[in-house]
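Why do we care about 3D structure at all? Because function follows from shape, and shape follows, mostly, from sequence. That is the central idea of this module. The next example makes it concrete: a single protein chain, its amino acid sequence, and then its structure expressed as tokens.
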Amino acid sequence: MQKEYIDVVVEGQKIRIEKGTLLETISKNVMHEKTSLIVAGIVNNEIKELTYPITAECDISFVDMTTDDGIRIYQRSLIFLLVKAFTDIYPDKEIEIRHSVSRGIFFEPVDLELDKEDVEKIEKRMKSLVEKDIPFRKEVLPTEKAKERFLRDNRIDRYGAIKYREKPHVSYYVLDGTEDYFYGYMVPSTGYLKLFRLEYYNCGIVLISPRTTSPNILETREIPEKLFQIFTEYRKWVSILGVDNVGKLNDIVEAGKINEFIRISEALHEKKIAQIADMIYDERERIKVILIAGPSSSGKTTFAQRLSIQLRVNGLIPINISIDDYFVEKKDTPLDENGKPDYESVEAIDLKLFNEQLNSLVQGKEVHVPFYNFITGKREYRNNKLNLNGGKILIIEGIHGLNPRLTSEVDENKKFKIYVSAITSMRIDRHNRIPTTDLRFIRRMVRDHQFRGCPPERTIELWPSVRNGEEKNIFPFQEEADIMFNSSLIYELGVLKSYALPLLRGIGPELPQYSESRRLIEFLSYFLAIGCDEIPPNSILREFIGGSCFR
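And the structure:
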């Protein structure tokens, strides 16, 4: 039979290939041009596994480990490898994914206590499977058949995840006789997964994998203890609400009980904010400055306003200062690696003036607070004079709030530092988590479209640089916090779905953001839609969907 050839464009270069050639085969010709491992391809702006055959003319590029997509695929494959190794050693037990922890993901076994030697044994088994280079085989089942199989095998969490989905089929993977469901793509085989490490921690396992910023090595960061405790606290909330996976949340929606669930979720937020306000009040003689920081779309603004109300209930008078008003003049703004003004750098702030004025306020003096004119790029003074006399307390909210350099000359004893982030512990099922970054990203996309005139494709385009800024300016200082507040709401993705889906569906296949839009559409398909009528006007979620009483 005569071979048939087609022309394709690979990384901008036109080549001729045999029809049906796998992406993996094509990738070997461009692997030397990439700085890290290639784990997937992009065909006409749509991500595909390396096992995908090319049967028509198309544009092809490749996904390596310097991208979020690449890390997700590698990490997901590692998770299956860990599940497989654990199952091989403990065939009658199950392991659950919990949450991210800095450079890795935390897992816990069900009804089993592990020790350090157990974790070493699991890691050894994983490495053995990598050496054998076993393929990840994808299978497809009609959705109704998959439901029957899940119920038969008592995999209720998996059944709940697909119970209300409208897709006619379900894809799953098989690795050396072990099958499992993972909602996203895999590498072709275990031989790709040479870079990983397991650590024993808190009676569980931390799976350490590469990051986009260091795709060829494993970082040796300390596990952030305070952030880990927030995840633990959130799990208690999940336990109180009885919703540890998407299926259980969907059951509440389907049963018409979501309004009560919303009220309880919001009450948990209010209780936590009130507790923080009480902590501050109890030390009111000491604390003069409250510093609030957190990553993009964590709800810092609404949190600060709700905290202010609770402080007023306690008899304190909160005064707000914007760090933006202390920007250096435009001509003195530091430049980033691309030669563009870097307004997210702490050097963009007049640290000397900021510290001088904070110290004066803490000492009971009055200061003339500046106003930064973004049009002229210069600082102005508009008769805004402040003091902290008579029960006043200063609130400062911004990305650098926990960076010691921001308030380096202010007495540490006078500060109270709060880290705010949207941390998710609810999962799709036992082996598929809901990434915190996806929740914040969807929040931002909805908010920026509604209130900042920013189209979703632009938000997708900017998100990697936003994340890089967080890695430099926010995450390194999160453990400086005296307390952390989790701003996520268990029900919110069901609400955000109705706002985000039309935006994502409007991104056509001709756009480079199409692949990411398809991924997020697939992710949101696991949630039943939830109306917003019962969401209170002071909810953190209102900051993103509208209707906030603080606007």
